[in-house]
Amino acid sequence: MTECKYNRCDGSGWFVPNSLNAVPCLCLKVRMARQKLGDGIWIEGGKVEVTETPLYKPGGVGNPPEIDRTTEDLFLRASYYTLRAHLRRALGGKMLDTDCLFRVTIVTDERLKNVFVGNESYAARSRKDRDYLQTMNSMGDLIGIESDLVVILLGYLGHTNKAAPGLLKEALMLRAGLSKPTWVAENTDILFQPDYPAYSPEVVYYMDQRFETVELEGFEPAPQPVTTDPEDVGLDDPPPPPARTRRAPEPKQDTKDDMGAFGNSKSDDMGAFGGGKKKRGMH
Ligand SMILES: [Zn+2]
Question: What is the largest CA-CA distance in the chain?
């Protein structure tokens, strides 16, 4: 049993706020989120700090998220660490908000290829048996209906493979057939372009039709809208909410700290992910 770093529970991961129902402690949710996202996102994503992501923004305790793009097909672009930092913040925030019920599957394009061409589920079978249905079944096990969101990380294929461009499109079509969203994430250090193994004009065309591209590199949160245009405010409208309090400067965080990249680990659940009632400082 580990100590609760938020001093909320006895280390069990649960506490009883009202003597009726035990609720998961933030420490448990963080552990679960970390396990689910994997260290490739959690640790690597903690190495650069992003204060906000356009992919997800908690709405604060009791409120729906201000931004939630986990239901959309997106093509994400950023360099290696920045990409992971956004994924960590967005998916970590989503998982905390849903008590980790949100089911996300993160796969590399190499993993997809291995499932597709048979390093995993039916490597022992003869080539003759590798029919389309089996292939799709294996893909379905990996990225099917069980996943609320699938994130496909591009850039892991080392050399040309004839199946690679097809498998990416098959994966996207499988998700579309289930009406489930997918994020395709390009590491801009390894561009998704004609010399990349999973690239094909067909898959690019497919994504162009359905996926919105989101550039994450250098993303800056938009300043709070100032409603000065009188035409926007009716006479009977309530006055605009008071300006949000400016967040105190954040302490330097050790990236080894689980919650470090989420900001102030001493604040409430949502605050820890950059939402909550406090507005993160805009510098
Ligand atoms: Zn705890």
Answer: 74
Q: Specify the pLDDT at position 166.
A: 85
pLDDT in tens, 143-155: 999 999 999 999 9
Using the mean position of ligand 1's atoms as its centre, give its distance from the Cα of residue 44 in Å.
Answer: 24
> Which spans in 104-163 are helix H?
109-117, 132-143
**Per residue in 92-140, pLDDT tens?**
999 999 989 999 999 999 988 888 776 554 444 555 555 666 666 778 8
- Domain for residue 21, yes or no? no
Question: Of the candidates 4, 178, 216, which has an alpha carbon nearest to the alpha carbon of residue 90?
Answer: 216
Answer for the pair 199, 258: CB distance below 8 angstroms, yes or no.
no
Q: Report DSSP state, residue 110.
A: H
Please tell me whether residue 257 adopts helix, strand or coil conformation.
coil
Distance from Cα 100 to the centre of ligand 1, integer Å:
15
Alpha-carbon distance of 72 to 137, in angstroms, equals 24
Domain that holds residue 166: 28-272
7 falls within a domain: no
The pLDDT of residue 272 is: 46
Distance 215 CA to ligand 1 centre (A): 36
CB-based contact 179:210 (threshold 8 Å): no
Give the per-residue pLDDT at 271.
41
Q: Has residue 43 been placed in a domain?
A: yes
Q: How far is the CA of 30 from the centre of ligand 1 (A)?
A: 9
Give the amino acid at 194.
Answer: P
CA of 279 to the centre of ligand 1 (A): 25
Q: How far apart are CA 71 and CA 101, in angstroms?
A: 15
Do residues 171 and 112 make contact, with C-beta atoms less than 8 angstroms apart?
A: yes
Is 222 contained in some domain? yes
Strand partners, 108: 153
What tens digit of pLDDT does each residue of 217-244 get?
A: 988 877 766 655 545 444 555 555 555 4
